[in-house]
């Protein structure tokens, strides 16, 4: 028996046998979960769980949840290079975070912290390891935004999707959501490893990792919505829910109707219950046309989805987007009157006002800290954080001013001058730690020496 263990052929046979059993177990699991009984049992459990989740979600103190989320993110990343440079150990309140961490962008973080390297600890630059890679997303403006793929980011996306699907269960209490398949579109354009290795995850794998566990056996993922056979693949299962950007959804619907020779998408998928879409404020006309085509039986819910995470989901009970305060993301709000400033004023959820336009900045476990999204929001209600996305103001380019050329004069310091040595000064934070000089009666013997 000892010789057999040392034999490489025997070891290889064990590996093949293990993979074979694993494949068989996965196939058996798929067959069990796709049965009618398993679908009904899972759906009954998810419907009851969604009612409990929404009841708890309605009682949340949003401002307190935001503070707890921020302190958790700061504590988790205080040993990273970004956390050491910005003194995360000194952050106790939201004001400390805004003073020590300036607003930035994902492009600046990628340029300064996410460059590929062979160093083993490069993943701990803005978020601690382990990391699944660096994902690049193509935005509608023609730019590319990058985020770090961490287990905490996938967990935050799963919680947000669970809330969105809970709204669907609440809107359709008697419908069978799991009687068909749930199609998820989108995903990153490319996934690379930050340690100069080959990509370890595909776009479909990244998209599937953000779906809640109990929904995965009934989900179909399409990381790239530009495939020609996507319409054929989507026609085979009877879809009950579609999620993605508005452009990807309309493109899929047009191809499916053309291939099926139907006028409405509800004629192709009569069991369709909900469409979860993300769009820009300029695409409101396309949303209304899609709503007229789907009819009143299909819920059309907007999702505030960004590469950094999902920030808001439309609540069908109020008809407005609901901010997600305890789903792993922290939000800063920049008044649109100051969005052109280099160091704009930021406020938290407790300081926002109704009817004022703010640019949204996100801090998330994707390794981004106070990153500007370029999306503007306007709050309509504060007891429940209800908002809507609005268009960002357009600022005309200022004319170039001609200034007089001032000759440069080099001023030499005195010979006995010594530069002060202190800590890194960020914004208006003090260069040294604030010290306390209050007299303490218990330290009288120490004061006397």
Structure characterization notes:
The chain is of the alpha/beta class and 449 residues long. It is 35% helix and 20% strand. The chain has 14 helices and 14 strands. The chain has an eleven-stranded mixed β-sheet. It has a three-stranded antiparallel β-sheet with strand order 2-1-4. Residues 1-17, 396-413, 417-423 and 434-449 have low confidence and may be disordered.
Q: How many angstroms separate the termini?
A: 75 Å
**Structural category:** alpha/beta
**Helix percentage:** 25-40%
Counting DSSP H or I runs of 4 or more residues, the number of helices is: 14
**Mean residue pLDDT:** 81
H/E element order: HHHHHHHEEHEEHEHEHHEHEEEEEEEH
Descriptive key words:
449 residues, alpha/beta, eleven-stranded mixed beta sheet, three-stranded antiparallel beta sheet, 14 helices, 35% helix, 20% strand, globular, disordered C terminus
Give the helices and strands, then pairings:
Blueprint lengths: L1 H5 L1 H26 L2 H23 L3 H15 L4 H5 L8 H7 L5 H7 L20 E6 L5 E6 L1 H21 L9 E5 L4 E3 L10 H7 L9 E4 L7 H6 L3 E7 H15 L4 H4 L5 E5 L5 H11 L4 E8 L2 E7 L4 E4 L6 E6 L21 E8 L3 E14 L4 E5 L53 H5 L1
Parallel strand pairs: 3-5, 3-6, 6-7, 7-8
Antiparallel strand pairs: 1-2, 1-4, 8-9, 9-10, 10-14, 11-12, 12-13, 13-14
Helix pairs in contact: 3-8
């Amino acid at each position: 028996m000892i010789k057999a263990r040392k034999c490489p052929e025997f070891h290889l046979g064990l590996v093949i046998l293990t993979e074979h059993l694993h494949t068989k177990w996965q196939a058996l699991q798929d067959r069990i979960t796709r049965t009618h009984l398993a679908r009904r049992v899972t759906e009954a459990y998810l419907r009851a769980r969604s009612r409990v989740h929404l009841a708890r979600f309605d009682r949340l103190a949003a401002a307190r949840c935001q503070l707890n989320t921020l302190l958790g993110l700061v504590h988790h990343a205080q040993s990273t290079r970004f956390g050491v440079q910005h003194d995360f150990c000194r952050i106790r309140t939201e004001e400390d975070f805004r003073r020590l961490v300036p607003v930035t962008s994902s492009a600046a973080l990628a340029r300064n912290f996410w460059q590929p390297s062979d160093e083993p600890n490069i993943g701990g630059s803005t978020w601690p390891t382990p990391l699944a890679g660096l994902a690049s997303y193509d935005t509608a403006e023609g730019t590319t935004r990058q985020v770090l793929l961490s287990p905490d980011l996938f967990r935050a996306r799963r919680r947000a999707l669970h809330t969105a699907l809970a709204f669907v269960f609440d809107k359709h209490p008697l419908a069978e959501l799991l009687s068909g398949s749930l199609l998820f579109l989108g995903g990153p354009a490319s996934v690379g490893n930050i340690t100069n290795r080959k990509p370890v995850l595909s776009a479909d794998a990244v998209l599937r990792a953000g779906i809640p566990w109990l929904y995965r056996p009934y989900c179909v993922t399409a990381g790239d919505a530009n495939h020609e056979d996507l319409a054929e693949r989507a026609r085979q299962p009877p879809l009950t829910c579609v999620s993605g950007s508005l452009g990807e959804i309309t493109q899929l619907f047009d191809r499916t109707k053309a291939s099926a020779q139907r006028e409405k998408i509800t004629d192709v998928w009569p069991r369709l219950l909900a469409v979860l879409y993300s769009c820009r404020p300029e695409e409101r006309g396309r949303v209304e046309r899609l709503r007229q085509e789907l009819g009143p039986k299909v819920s059309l819910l907007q999702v505030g989805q960004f590469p950094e995470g999902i920030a808001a989901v439309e609540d069908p009970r109020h008809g407005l987007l609901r901010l997600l305060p305890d789903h792993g993301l922290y939000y800063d709000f920049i008044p649109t009157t100051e969005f052109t400033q280099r160091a704009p004023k930021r406020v938290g959820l407790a300081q926002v006002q109704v009817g004022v336009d703010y640019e949204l900045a996100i801090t998330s476990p994707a390794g981004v800290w106070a990153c500007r999204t370029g999306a503007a929001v306007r709050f309509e209600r504060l007891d429940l954080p209800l908002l809507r996305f609005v268009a960002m103001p357009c600022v005309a380019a200022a004319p170039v001013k001609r200034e007089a050329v001032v000759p440069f004069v080099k001023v030499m310091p005195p010979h006995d001058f010594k530069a002060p040595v202190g800590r890194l000064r960020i914004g208006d934070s003090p260069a040294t730690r604030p010290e306390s000089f209050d007299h303490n009666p218990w330290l009288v013997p120490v004061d006397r020496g």
